[in-house]
Amino acid sequence: MDGTEAFKESLDNNEDVQLNVKNEEEEIAVLEAEANCLNSEKQEAKFNERVPNIDFQCGICDMTESVHYYGKRPPFLYGLQLLEDSFVMRDPFQPPPLRWKPKSEYFVVIGAKCSVCQKIVCKGTECSFYYTCTYCLNCAKNCLDVAPTEVQAKLRKQLEQDK
Amino acid sequence: MSKSSKRSKKSSSRDEETNLINFSFCDHKSSFRHLLQGDDKHSASIVEDEVDFWKFVNKYESMLRSAGQPILVNPLRDSKVKEGEPFHKRKYIGLQLERGSDYEQLKRGCHNSDERVLTKLKARQFREIILTYMDFKQKEKFAKIKKLRKSQKNLPIAAFKQKIQEELKQTRVLIIAGDTGCGKSTQVPQYLYEFGYRSIACTQPRRLACVSLSKRVAHEMLDDYGSKVGFQIRFEKNKTKNTNILFITEGLLLRQLAVETNLEQYDVLILDEIHERNLFGDFLLGVTKCLLHAKPDLKLILMSATINVELFHNYFRNEGAALIEVPGRLYPIKTMFMPPPSLELKGGAGGSKSVAKNSNRLDPAPYIQVLSLIDQKYPTTERGDVLIFVSGVNEITTVCDAAKEYAEKNSHWIILPLHSGLALADQDKVFDYAPDGMRKCIVSTNIAETSLTVDGVRFVIDSGKVKEMSYDASCKGQRLKEFWVSKSSAEQRKGRAGRTGPGTCFRLFSEKQFASFEAYPTPEIFRVPLETILLQMIAMGLPNVRSFPFIESPEEECIEQAIWSLKQHNALAVDEKITPLGKSLSNLPVEITIGKMLLMGCVFPDVEKILTLAATMSVQNPFTNRAYTDRKCEQEREALQSDQGDIFTLLRAYHEWLQMKWHNENTRKWCHKLGIEEQRFYEISKLRNQFQNILENCNMTCKNADGTQLSSAERARRHGEVRQLKAIKRKQKYQEPRKRKILKHNHGYGGDGGEDEFDDATAGDDIRNVDFRLQHDTAKLEILLHSSKADKQRDVLLLKLIIVSGFYPQIAIADEFNYCKSGSQQFFHTFLKPFISIHPNSYFAKYFDVLKLNDSDILDKPSYYTPKQVLSTRHQVLCYQNLLETAKPYLMNSIRMPAAQALLLFSYSVDTNASVSRVVCDSWLCLDFPVPETGCELLSRAIKLRRLWSKLLSQKLTDLDKNVESQSVKREKRDKDEEAELWESLIDFMSANVSYTIKRLLPADLKSLYTHERLSNFEKFDINPFASDYEITHNEQKGGINVAENVVYGCLQEVQWTLSMEAEMRQHTWMCKTCEMEIALDTVEKLLHKRSCIAPNISSSKTHETSSPTPGSSGADNGNAYYCESCQKNLHNLSKIDILKHKKYCNKTAD
């Protein structure tokens, strides 16, 4: 995706002031929210919501992260929902959104439970496989021999790649 | 594209099927775009970057086309996504759009619902593309995190995480030794956070490292936009209440320690890079050692390269320190000892601390030989750059010139110099890539040894030399000399070749020489003046600085000398307790001299000017080397040059720069033209603000009322401006750090590829300019502009006085034979060191005539004055900022001052003979005043001014000490009046027209200088004629009497000519202008008489020459009558000063 990145960059450089000012309001609001959060409990809660407090650890690769949400409908997700309960993090690569303003793609799915053995696994290709639901690679090997051939082929490819 | 769209219009209406051969969603963006919006009241976009999305669609479509699957599959019903059979691609995706798939829902929000295009099928297929895109983006983001974690796990330090945690349970002091690249600086703070510590401070020797580390660690903790990780450096702070990890410079942490004793706020301290043995680093080690006893919960982690680890381990042995050694990650490096033949002959001659021989000029041939060796042995297809270490800027130039010549024949070389005097933009070039088939050759000082890491280096050529600053306490000068490096430095240099792959290190010295190198470099504490650090220690309340547990103690003598000097500066009292002045000085993050300037200037009416001056003198010289070597730069500078001293030239340049800022002009280009490093000017502005804040915070100056009220139009404009600036700033902040570019051939040394860089960068693009404008609104800029202006003689004079008040005793006097010698033969003498030159870049070196007396300045001597010295009213001394010895000892940044006036005002001890015709300052400079009474009079005035100045200052300082918040208005007004009086009289004093001679005393002269006898006519002194409220005492040491804090009267032996003068004087009677009595009196008797005679007539307490008529004689002309409101009298013929004095007296009596 090098081309995309270069394109994004050129877009950034040509960004006109109008666009900046729009972001400006956003940032001022965020800053103000932060500044006001000291005493009011409500604000405190709002701040805490930004602090990840669910521990996630992949049962296979040990990847350890603190995430913000477990379930299908994270409050910070806009226009989308997840098909299974997942460990979801607010997108660390985007500036935080305003409360009243939805933000697109402001999430990263980190992992889920294996639908067979219930082990927590991350989304990495060396740890899990998704077809209608998440499988840990072990269970995937065992269970998917009844799946459509396309799925089996893909799984085989994935297993091979990771070797 | 247009072809296919035409076709698609025709076909899509006919059949439902979506065939990518004749249809593309990209051609119908307006019909499908609404599906990218949330189906709720916000209708906000659900993709982060729509442009990126359409690019993806385009690629996705062409991928399907080329895979031979141009007909899009039927979309899957939302309800079927959990069923395993039949196979559908969408079942790989765990996401679902919130917007439903009814036709109604699919059409909602569409502004261009062409029924033929936006069919239900296509809309649902488009939805699946959106999901595919979303899934792709998710995988990308996840992979980014996973990759980050993987690279963290691969760091050598990661294997020790467990061990660190375990050790920390057992001990309070943990030493982690690991070489560059092992990851300790980035990972250990994070580990601690994981272990549950929530307020972690990590010190760094360099500001830049604080900023970049905090950015890196925040990124690794996925907290780029949060505030878990912050930094605090001299000019900037990025820290909130929620900050858990703080990167802070060593100096700042020490200052925090000084303010908040025991650092309650931190639960772990990490001291990083302690092997560098900085002054502050060493000091911190000692302080934290003490701190461990005072704060039992604190954990301390020391991190160093694997250099002399045992030293640190032993130092904390009693505290039970544990040691973890982490292996570095270096590729094998081949070492080749290649001593140049000429050096080998003299082989072994250099013990590492003996000055390397053959220092006249470096021979670049061996370096070029190695370059050509590399060319022979390694094909250019094998990547790998060269890093050459030499000792200094001149050496860099020599090698660069030769290498450039070599590169002309071998055009695959790009030569890049690297040293700290280089403009920052030029420094950055070393990080750029060489194009394929080319190599860069970086010629560097030891800056690339540890401070800067350049990746991709495969070959290191090490001269084995380093220029090191050392401090010579015997002449209070710094010395920059070339030495052999230490073994550990040589190893560091070598290590730079093996960071990205196996490498080779060519050492231009022999193995035998290497064996004779010192093991480690000299710690900074042995190489710098200790005043600042000792003062800070005392200010922190350390009971006895002499017993401070330094890891390696400096020599006792150096400590004693520093304490002595602090006493001289009046920062310490005789009993070594800190004085109010000392306390305030310790608050200022600058050298003692500059700090003193700031404080002495606090009673100066125009404090703004002092702030600017002090800031200007505290930064690295903005004029780069090029400013002095390039003819064009010199020409450009000419208009700004001041004959008062280089600091005034700099001040003018800064003023000019501000003026350009005022007019919104391109300052970058201008700076380049003059050879100025613009960054320094920004630093001056920042530092000045910092000074102002510090002085305001400790009530030394009044806060400026918040400027003039802006009109609403102005406010609106400023508001708009601020918004724009903030937007630019944020954009820059969130942008990736400077990307490494590919070097062009002419970008190297001597190429002129740089010029246009200054044109295309508009002022708004420059983040420093944005910062500057954010900090300085019109009003502030105006103050700054005004404060940097010193074109009036009077302003210059006052500023010079302030400078001397801080820098004394850094005074130099011209050699008596300078008048008949050429420019390079002009010598100056300081108290401690004779025969010093002025730095060749200085104005005074070139235009040395301004330091000489003109023939017309030389006066005829009275017949009784027989010594050969020249009589004049215009003798000058130099006051210098520092003394630097490179090839020769040089005076740096000097100003010129009227000699007698400056000396009488600032000398620590002023000794006189009975008639005050002979005055010796600091037992070093002797002033002869052969015109009767003139010496006495000048001294009286000096004493008065000096005492007034110090009274005003100490009032301010003691108020501070007692925390007197607001002084009574009356008192403040009186102070203001006194201040005004002080500065008026100082200017008068400095321009006093007194003829005298000046001579440097030699040790032999001192033997017979003092009488060592009590004054014979002591009983006459019932009143102190110099300072009425100072009690006269005998001076047992020199003889004579103490008549003021720094003045001993009558202790000098009379000499031939003073006796002759007295004899001549006695032949004339003297008429007192006040009481009109004619009496025969000697100088002091006159003085005493004047005191007692005038005392009752307050209205004219004149002691100096202006011949005003007797007060009260009503016949005098009353053209300039002054009516005093408090005593309701008309007063005549009073000078401004007299009026002020009168007012003061009146107020006093009215109280």
From TrEMBL, chain A:
Keyword Hydrolase set for record: no
Domain of life from the UniProt record: Eukaryota
Domain Cysteine-rich DPF motif residues, every copy: 56-155
Signal peptide coordinates: none
Coiled-coil ranges from the UniProt annotation: 7-48
Keywords assigned: Coiled coil
PANTHER family, A to Z: CYSTEINE-RICH DPF MOTIF DOMAIN-CONTAINING PROTEIN 1, CYSTEINE-RICH PDF MOTIF DOMAIN-CONTAINING PROTEIN 1
Family membership noted in the UniProt record: Belongs to the CDPF1 family.
Protein name, as recorded: Cysteine-rich DPF motif domain-containing protein 1
From TrEMBL, chain B:
InterPro entries tied to this protein: DEAD-box_helicase_OB_fold, DEAD/DEAH_box_helicase_dom, DHX34_Znf-C2H2, Helicase-assoc_dom, Helicase_ATP-bd, Helicase_C-like, P-loop_NTPase
Gene3D superfamilies: 1.20.120.1080, P-loop containing nucleotide triphosphate hydrolases
Taxonomy, superkingdom: Eukaryota
Domain Helicase ATP-binding: 165-325
GO molecular function term, any single one: hydrolase activity
Coiled coil: none
Record-linked PROSITE patterns: HELICASE_ATP_BIND_1 (PS51192), HELICASE_CTER (PS51194)
Helicase C-terminal domain segment(s): 373-541
UniProt keyword annotations, A-Z: ATP-binding, Helicase, Hydrolase, Nucleotide-binding
One matching Pfam family: Helicase_C
Keyword Magnesium: no
Record bears the keyword Hydrolase: yes
Stated name of the protein: Putative ATP-dependent RNA helicase DHX34
Organism: Ceratitis capitata
Gene behind the chain: DHX34
